[in-house]
Design goal:
This protein is of the alpha+beta class. It is 37% helix and 24% strand. The protein contains six helices and eight strands. The strands form two sheets. It has a five-stranded mixed β-sheet with strand order 4-7-6-5-8, with helices on one face. The chain has a three-stranded antiparallel β-sheet with strand order 1-2-3. The longest helix has 17 residues, at 61-77. It starts with 7 loop residues before the first strand and ends with a strand. Residues 30-53 have low confidence and may be disordered.
């Protein structure tokens, strides 16, 4: 396996690679070089969270229908390899795009997501969020990050510096290994 061809992230003095075809992460050797450790500080994601709105929300029927469709597609794709989920996001075709305010649609997504009985894990939630936002927001980014020890991986969606389906305190602890700008 050629590690140089795989997405990589620096976390706590160690490189981590993501083999997209096999859905596996591979940890590298511990490196103590000061320059390499400085890369970790540069890779830390610093994002702002979207402020919630206090008024009651009734989403428009078309927005709600698009959310339900996005959630259904993400649920069906959750058992696919990560490479296939990334390909699904890249090939997503949205027929009617109506771009709007990022904060409004991030808030709408968070609200509708909280109405679900079972909260999906981060990868399924992020695929759903990216599919939902593709219709309403320009250039959402689907991200996967890693950290260790202990080894953990996490997925989230952001638009510019706005986090849509996560909080800054969580995302800052991960080193980004994959970023898919949609």
């Amino acid at each position: 396996m050629d590690l140089e061809a795989l997405p990589a992230a620096w976390s706590n003095g160690q490189w981590i690679w993501l083999d997209l075809q096999r859905n596996r992460y591979k940890g590298g050797e511990v490196m103590r070089d000061a320059d390499l450790q400085a890369l970790q500080a540069l890779a830390t994601v610093k994002l702002q969270t979207v402020a919630g709105n206090e008024k009651p929300l009734v989403p428009p029927l078309g927005v709600l229908a698009h959310y339900i469709r996005s959630a259904w597609i993400a649920r069906k794709a959750r058992y696919l390899p990560i490479a296939d989920q990334l390909a699904l996001l890249q090939s997503a075709q949205i027929k009617y795009k109506t771009f709007g305010d990022t904060a409004t649609f991030a808030w709408l997504y968070q609200h509708m997501r909280n109405l679900r009985i079972r909260r999906p894990l981060c990868l399924e939630d992020s695929v759903c969020c990216a599919l939902f936002l593709l219709r309403y927001v320009e250039a959402p980014s689907f991200c996967i990050g890693v950290k260790q020890p202990p080894f953990m991986a996490h997925a989230w969606v952001q638009v510019g510096d706005v986090l849509v389906n996560d909080v800054k305190a969580v995302v800052e602890t991960y080193s980004e290994i994959v970023r898919l700008d949609l």
